[in-house]
User: Fold these one by one.
Assistant:
Number 1:
Amino acid sequence: MEEDTSQQKHQARIYGEILEERDRQDQKWGGQAHDDKHDPCDWIAFIRRHIDKIGDAEFPEVYRRQMIRVAALALAAIEACDRRTDHGVGDETFDRE
């Protein structure tokens, strides 16, 4: 049981870091108004760009930082998708604006 609690605390810390990164991205780029201009191909490109920055992951801190950024971008993509498709309900296609 104690191990589960330790893992849950560790996961909660990671989730907190991802949410902090989302807040940072929102401050930098403008939040929902900016995010909603992007289609799935854009989000894939953004995520791929951050994955490419990892390189050979020679340094664990670089790998970890980029993975937090990738997770935050994935969260932003899901949030934008849900807004575009009535909160995840339906099967609306994405049109570029």
Number 2:
Amino acid sequence: MHGTEETKTNTYTPGPWALDADLMKIYSVPTNLMIAAIPISRNPTCEQAWEMDSRLIAAAPEMFEALRGIVLAFGLGSDLDDKIDVAITAIAKARGEG
């Protein structure tokens, strides 16, 4: 597939996805559909990890598009600067920095 445009259509819920920490859910911003509910745990280790795990899940559409764009740019010889900026933004979102 290197250097060719993917012909499959996306079958996942459209992004961007966002974390609503108050309602403990991840949802699609354009459709407002819930992607995942975050279970409440009595385990302190799980409670500390749920927010970072949720941010990583919420960043999935952007990370997918960034990675896809980088792969396509390498195959097509395009300028990577814009694609790298998208990737950096997606990584920051997953880390809770954006």
